[in-house]
């Protein structure tokens, strides 16, 4: 491996090059990914974000993986846009358990003019709590993007989800180029981009490679790259999708880390179906962000205490944020450890 393997920010990846990354022996890939990771990050820090669904269900889009699509009957109770104060209460709770970023998601095709003022108040309020702010509201126009940036939104999450080639088998109500347009508005407005995809929808290795090529070949890499493992929800067309080989999922994280060396790669949805060993391997492959808190948007996520305990056993500390002292994280870890103290003997690498 040359020095340029570790330090160059490339935007010209070819399919052949990315296939070669994916298909090398597992240990070679992980070694390369971990080496790149260490050149850019503290390998023992993981960023923690908490998710909240601020508007749930009855979405007009037809994303085949999604429990919130109005096209499928998943038994999900639909809810209106939450009250601003209720969102701020949840954000304060997330901060108290050690999250540094609060991500608010809405099951919309795009925000409406009537909803925008409330959404902007949520951004301002969450920011005032000293948390980083992230929203995922669907497609944006330029004026909405500018308004969110003015309100202080740090990150906008808008996933490409899969390769351009496979995309039309998954979603027909929004085009790939509309997604790229929204990302370009977000970048132009000066916000950070969070964009990634989902594995386990029946995509090929080339689809995974082409998704990463789309992301890495953007003029600037997304600062945050969520890699989700499909959460199979009954009632969606993907409820019986075949399980992905866990090693192939780890390979995806490792290749994302190598292609976007300075981005946070998030081990996102699907952790409920992963054991601790797999999650540890994911961190070794260069994943350095998780969704933290008992719920994703509508489905379950590992208990916060369980995550802190895993961090502690691995000697990982949550990544600090300028407004967020390490003491908050330490308190969350100690709380998790106290719960375990009398019941188990374990090796705590963090103390
Ligand atoms: N409605 C907005 C949109 O799609 O742009 C924002 C919310 S949407 C739920 C955000 C992302 O969640 C999707 O792009 C998809 O990547 C992810 N997601 C949704 N359902 C999922 C599932 N069952 N498993 C894994 N990821 C999922
Ligand atoms: C992302 O990439 N994953 C998150 C977030 N961005 C918005 C959403 C995961 C949703 C999983 C299914 C659910 O809980 O509804
Ligand atoms: Fe709607 Fe987003 Fe779900 Fe697609 S992923 S159905 S746009 S909530």
Automatic annotation (TrEMBL):
The keyword 4Fe-4S applies. Pathway: Cofactor biosynthesis; biotin biosynthesis; biotin from 7,8-diaminononanoate: step 2/2. It catalyses: (4R,5S)-dethiobiotin + (sulfur carrier)-SH + 2 reduced [2Fe-2S]-[ferredoxin] + 2 S-adenosyl-L-methionine = (sulfur carrier)-H + biotin + 2 5'-deoxyadenosine + 2 L-methionine + 2 oxidized [2Fe-2S]-[ferredoxin]. Binds 1 [2Fe-2S] cluster. The cluster is coordinated with 3 cysteines and 1 arginine. Binds 1 [4Fe-4S] cluster. The cluster is coordinated with 3 cysteines and an exchangeable S-adenosyl-L-methionine. This is Biotin synthase. [4Fe-4S] cluster binds at residues 59, 63, 66. The keyword Phosphoprotein does not apply. Belongs to the radical SAM superfamily. Biotin synthase family. NCBIfam families: bioB. Its cofactor is [2Fe-2S] cluster; [4Fe-4S] cluster. PROSITE patterns: RADICAL_SAM. It holds the Pfam family Radical_SAM. GO terms for biological process: biotin biosynthetic process. [2Fe-2S] cluster binds at residues 103, 134, 194, 266. Catalyzes the conversion of dethiobiotin (DTB) to biotin by the insertion of a sulfur atom into dethiobiotin via a radical-based mechanism.
